[in-house]
Amino acid sequence: MRITISEMRGKILVMKRKKVWIGAACLAVLLCAGAFAAFIYIKGQAEEHFAKGTILNGVDVSGMTLEELDKRIGQYSIDVVQKDRDGESFSETILGNEFNIGIGQNEDAAKKVLREQGILQYLLGKGTEHTVENWVEYDEKKLEDAIRRLSCFDTSKTAEPEDAHISKYNKAEGCYRIIAESDGNTLEEGEAFDVIMKAVHQMEPEVNLLEEGCYKMAAVASDDKALAELLEELNAYVGTKITYHFGTKKEVVDGKLISKWIKVNKKNQVVFKKEKISEFVASLRRKYDTIFRSRKFKTSYGKKITVEGGDYGWWMNYTEEEKQLLKQIKKKKSGKRTPVYYQTAKSYGAKDYGDSYIEINLTMQQVFLYINGKKILETDCVTGNSARGYDTPAGAYSITYTERDATLKGENYATPVKYWMPFNHNIGLHDANWRSRFGGEEYKRNGSHGCVNLPPEKAEKIFKYAEKGMPVICYHLEVKEDKTKEQDKKKDGQDKKDRKSGLGQPAH
């Protein structure tokens, strides 16, 4: 059987077409197998690796397996930013291996993200952000210990906050100032613990305790209005200057003293230490009061003596002075100040009796009157009858008052006088017109009840100068003078004549 060329060509063409279809079929099979294998691979990758862009609790886990994530978590560390005593910031690092951090038995949360992650999501790299609970585990006790080892929990390296406050009085500047607050570096420990634990739980690489407000803060700042008002009040007090003048001497109450007399109580109120003011006033009394004290006195005979006793002199009313001084300070009123006195003297200093005074020598029975330092009168007198216990007391006194035409009364007498000048209770100077003799030893035989009897004309002259507060200096001083002896002899002779004639009145 003969086959034509055309038939042969047809058969060959058919055979080629079969081969093509067989090859295509084989290729398709291969492609399907490859695609399937690729699908299986990709599916496995997607189930084991996180898609690009996947974030777990703030941690970028792109392309990681659970094993790699566990390793990554195990390498975790956190920098804890703190501050030192001077307020300078620094950081310390807590390493994850200090508290055994890892996925551990809590990998189900991460696995769930993988299960929900699709192949297409994996291929396209469109991972998303996830917040999952309990996806890591760690030893809480070891983490607490690691936190405790931080410098900020070491009390030897911390300082408590200090409120802005008023300084001590500055003597050089003469004022108080505000000391600015200091926040220190002491933690609110519970709050700091919570912040660090939360940061670890969220795998934060850093936590700043300053920014998180974990440090205690001063309650009072330097710009506090109440503090500024307190400062102003304190400086107004210490800015007060009060000056006492005691003759040539002076005592100054200024900031140096007042700052010791004031304090600020717990309610931020200025209060006065009254006992300190009392001590100051008492010191003035000790220095300048002269009442009941002895004093040096130069007699008319030129001899210096010490006069003891009497109630003459400066006598401060310390109770009232304390009140008035405190009142002036509270008013913040500067200026001169004169103390409140029960009794004053003529001048300050050793010679507090001044230059105008009455001098009585009880031994010589003589009286002298000085006005502005000049002796203008000298006279004999008769003082208290010593034999009957009516001695005129020595000492420094002052005229209590003056009175014309007074009647001096006692148990058995009522004696009228023209010039009455008491200086020691009911003892005083007065005229004695019933007497014809004065001086000598008359007082021993026929003395008064304690008063200083004077010739009427002498008493009148003294009365013209006498005034309330005028010093009266009484003393005993034996002066040997021939003239005195002659006068005594003359007076003794006169006394005998008076007795014969019956002259004399009740003596006061």
Write up what this structure looks like.
This protein is α+β, with helices and mostly antiparallel strands and 508 residues long. Helices cover 34% and strands 22% of the residues. It contains 13 helices and 26 strands. It has helices at 5-48, 66-74, 108-116, 119-124, 140-148, 189-201, 225-238, 255-261, 274-288, 318-330, 442-446, 456-465, 482-501; strands at 55-56, 59-60, 77-83, 89-95, 129-130, 165-166, 178-179, 206-208, 242-246, 249-253, 262-264, 270-272, 295-298, 304-307, 315-316, 335-337, 341-343, 357-361, 366-371, 374-380, 395-398, 403-409, 414-424, 427-431, 452-454, 471-475. The strands form 9 sheets. A 5-stranded mixed beta sheet has the order 20-19-18-26-21, covered by helices on one side. A hairpin with a 2-residue loop joins strand 23 (414-424) and strand 24 (427-431). The chain is rod-shaped. Residues 483-489 and 494-507 have low confidence and may be disordered.
Features:
508 residues; alpha+beta; 5-stranded mixed beta sheet; 4-stranded mixed beta sheet; 13 helices; rod-shaped; disordered C terminus
Provide the fold topology.
Layout: H1 5-48, E1 55-56, E2 59-60, H2 66-74, E3 77-83, E4 89-95, H3 108-116, H4 119-124, E5 129-130, H5 140-148, E6 165-166, E7 178-179, H6 189-201, E8 206-208, H7 225-238, E9 242-246, E10 249-253, H8 255-261, E11 262-264, E12 270-272, H9 274-288, E13 295-298, E14 304-307, E15 315-316, H10 318-330, E16 335-337, E17 341-343, E18 357-361, E19 366-371, E20 374-380, E21 395-398, E22 403-409, E23 414-424, E24 427-431, H11 442-446, E25 452-454, H12 456-465, E26 471-475, H13 482-501
Parallel strand pairs: 1-5, 3-8, 9-16, 18-26, 24-25
Antiparallel strand pairs: 1-2, 3-4, 6-7, 9-10, 11-12, 13-14, 15-17, 18-19, 19-20, 21-26, 22-23, 23-24
Helix pairs in contact: 9-10
